[in-house]
């Protein structure tokens, strides 16, 4: 104890100076630390604001066609899943990318992962792609985006020889999955009408960006061969929207023999219609206006009674 007191008495000034220096350094460090924390907080805040502003500018919240706006949260979710799909394709994760497709898209276009690989992946993702996403059109149940897949010039080295691909990709709100290859939506409809022994059923509807496709079942309950259409007029089979605007068919793309329906026969096939996607002008009616009830007589005399069958959707 005496030695400690002696040491204190002999080195009092030095000890006090050392303690003051240590306390001063500690105080300075605390001040500098607080200043640094405040600067970091301000910088993070500024970065957050800047990132939000940049994100708002980049997010495709506004339709390039209608000017309609989609809320930020929905847009962020949709962009995320489209980017995830593209990234999986770039990484060669074909099964994982396929799993992001809706059941309806698989049924309409790619029944197997092999179909998806051969008819979509191998066409677009021969090389790495970057993407640009633009809001195209929106409905109550879907958001459709124009997605451009750009060739990655850095990885390919093809400067001035860009091989880009554009698709319309739709996000279904209820499944949070994708319809690709310009498919907007598809569904079973099960609508029908019967006249003069001819029964026409609309079984399925597929809406694409540039056209609509309907799958039909035709049943002839008469004792004559029936001709479903003479194929002389592109608007003899047509659809009507809610404003009664008529859209003709591409029935000539179907084999003409399929339109011949022998007595007591049933056939099924699909017909494409020339109606571009518009979420506010839904199809309300399908019309077959040139059905020949006795095809054999028609071939002999080039005249026969015609039937008009309408299916309301």
Provide tags for this entry.
313 residues, alpha+beta, Nuclear Transport Factor 2, Chain: A, Immunoglobulin-like, four-stranded antiparallel β-sheet, 35% helix
- The share of residues in extended strands comes to 25-35%
Following the backbone from N to C, one meets helices and strands in this order, namely HHHHHEEHEEEEEEEEEEEHE
Class per helix and strand makeup: alpha+beta
Q: How many strands, which pairing sense, and closed or not: the largest β-sheet?
A: 4 strands, antiparallel
- Helical residue percent? 25-40%
Q: What is the level 1 CATH name of the largest domain?
A: Mainly Beta
For the record, give the distance between the C-alpha atoms at the N and C termini, rounded to a whole number: 104 Å
Helical segment count: 7
CATH topology of the largest domain: Immunoglobulin-like
Radius of gyration: 34 Å
How would you sum up the global shape?
rod-shaped
């Amino acid at each position: 104890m005496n030695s400690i007191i002696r040491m204190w008495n002999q080195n009092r000034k030095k000890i006090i100076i050392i303690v003051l220096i240590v306390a001063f350094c500690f105080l300075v460090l605390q001040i500098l630390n607080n200043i640094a924390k405040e600067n970091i907080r301000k910088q993070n805040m500024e970065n957050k604001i800047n990132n939000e502003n940049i994100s708002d500018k980049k997010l495709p919240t506004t339709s390039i066609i209608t000017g309609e706006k989609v809320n930020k949260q929905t847009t962020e979710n949709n962009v995320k899943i489209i980017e995830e799909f593209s990234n999986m394709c770039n990484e060669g994760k074909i099964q994982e990318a396929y799993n992001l497709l809706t059941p309806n898209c698989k049924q309409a276009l790619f029944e197997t992962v092999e179909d998806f690989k051969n008819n979509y992946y191998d066409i677009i993702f021969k090389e790495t792609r970057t993407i640009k996403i633009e809001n195209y059109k929106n409905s109550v149940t879907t958001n459709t985006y124009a997605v451009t897949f750009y060739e990655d010039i850095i990885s390919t080295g093809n400067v001035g020889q860009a091989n880009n691909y554009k698709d319309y990709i739709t996000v279904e709100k209820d499944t949070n999955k994708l319809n690709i290859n310009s498919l907007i939506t598809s569904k079973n409809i099960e609508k029908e009408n019967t006249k003069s022994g001819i029964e026409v059923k609309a079984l399925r509807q597929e809406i694409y960006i540039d056209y609509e496709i309907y799958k039909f079942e035709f049943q002839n309950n008469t004792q004559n061969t029936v001709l479903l259409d003479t194929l002389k007029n592109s608007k003899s089979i047509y659809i009507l929207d809610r404003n009664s605007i008529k859209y003709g068919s591409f029935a000539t793309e179907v084999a003409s023999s399929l339109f011949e329906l022998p007595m007591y026969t049933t056939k099924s096939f699909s017909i494409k219609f020339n109606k571009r996607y518009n979420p506010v002008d839904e199809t309300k009616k399908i019309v077959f206006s040139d059905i020949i009830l006795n095809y054999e007589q028609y071939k002999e005399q080039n005249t026969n009674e015609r039937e008009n069958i309408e299916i309301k959707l």
